[in-house]
Amino acid sequence: MKKQKQISDVIPINKILAGDCIETMLGLPEESVDMIFADPPYNLQLSGELHRPNNSRVSGVDEDWDKFDSFAEYDSFTRAWLAAAKRVLKPDGTLWVIGSYHNIFRVGTAVQNLDFWILNDIVWVKTNPMPNFRGKRFTNAHETMIWCTKQQRSRYTFNYEAMKSLNDELQMRSDWLIPLCSGPERLRDKEGVKSHPTQKPEALLHRAILASTNPGDIILDPFFGSGTTGVLAKRLGRNYIGLERDENYVELAENRIATEPPPSEMHLVETPSKRREPRVPFGWLVERGMLTAGTILHSAGRRWAAKVRADGTLYAVNNVGEHRGSIHQVGAALQGAPACNGWTFWFLDVEGREVPIDLLRQKLRAELN
């Protein structure tokens, strides 16, 4: 009779595992997940009910899972789940953990004490925060996410170009302006009551997952709740493992994820990185006959020109004198600039059209792959 496989023998991808997150993580294979997104209890320490000026009650977080008897108890819980999370995280994987001012500083201390290496603290700026009805404090309009690696020398994934594209070709900053989950996205029961009090907006998970994973990667969420992590993992061609002890939330998340279609074509969710592409020196274009000695290259608008030499360097003349060197060096010298990206500076004349030499590099890369 075959011995039945234990949970530690397999990775239960695209499943929600019901039960205590710490115990369940201890049963998962070591170093088996690429990313962890954790939205742990905030330990809000609420006292009494909060009402709006019209005397209607504010629906806050008053579930038992967010209640702890003391900071010491909360700290012990935090250390335990973070240690279990670190065990299942791959050496080059990353952890995202989100919190408010009630808990994020205590979580951050535990993160560093466990030797995670913090890469960024992301400030989620809520464009539609709940007002401070009592008028005794500033309106609490943000939450903080800590993004970190398992160790300082981890070779983690960061899809820089994807984040830049997502942000209209500007570097993505660490302050993310995203509205609270509302409207059709907010899950509610038949009476219109929120199905989960801390449901995170899909845009937040979209950005975190796209930034730090690749298609096919495994994302673990130890506090799965309404399943937003699973929805975005499926939408972006990643895999997920959800841990949730509340059976009602398990059912809610399963039904929600079942309605989410996978990508129609996987290449549409890929995030290619220039840093991962094979290096192609300019000289390779010459030795493969894509360019020949004597070919004239010119800048946009044809202000400057240079000739290709057999060794993959350029030759140019201007009012300063002669210039020989790489495509970058000659481009910089002609402009009197400290540096130049020759791949985007130089163009080739093809039947009267300006064709950037970078297209030739991309063609050669495709052949090499």
What's the short version?
With 369 residues, the protein is of the alpha/beta class. Helices cover 28% and strands 21% of the residues.
Task: Report the CATH C-level class of the largest domain.
Answer: Alpha Beta
Give the structural class: alpha/beta
Mean pLDDT comes to 89
Radius of gyration: 27 Å
Number of helices: 11
And the CATH topology of the largest domain? Rossmann fold
SSE order:
EHEHEHEEHEHEHEHHEEEEHHEEH
Structural summary, described in words:
- The chain is built from eleven helices and 14 strands.
- It has 369 residues and is of the alpha/beta class.
- The chain has two domains: 8-44 and 60-271, Vaccinia Virus protein VP39 (Rossmann fold, 3-Layer(aba) Sandwich); 277-368, no CATH class.
- Helix 2 links the parallel strand 2 (33-38) and strand 3.
- Helix 5 (202-212) crosses helix 6 (228-235).
- The chain is elongated.
- 30% of the residues are buried.
- Residues 1-8 have low confidence and may be disordered.
Blueprint (SSEs and pairs):
Layout: E1 15-18, H1 21-26, E2 33-38, H2 71-88, E3 89-99, H3 104-113, E4 117-125, E5 142-149, H4 160-166, E6 175-177, H5 202-212, E7 218-221, H6 228-235, E8 239-244, H7 247-258, H8 282-287, E9 296-299, E10 305-308, E11 314-318, E12 321-325, H9 327-335, H10 342-345, E13 346-350, E14 353-356, H11 357-368
Parallel strand pairs: 1-8, 2-3, 2-7, 4-6, 7-8
Antiparallel strand pairs: 3-5, 4-5, 9-10, 9-13, 10-11, 11-12, 13-14
Helix pairs in contact: 2-3, 5-6
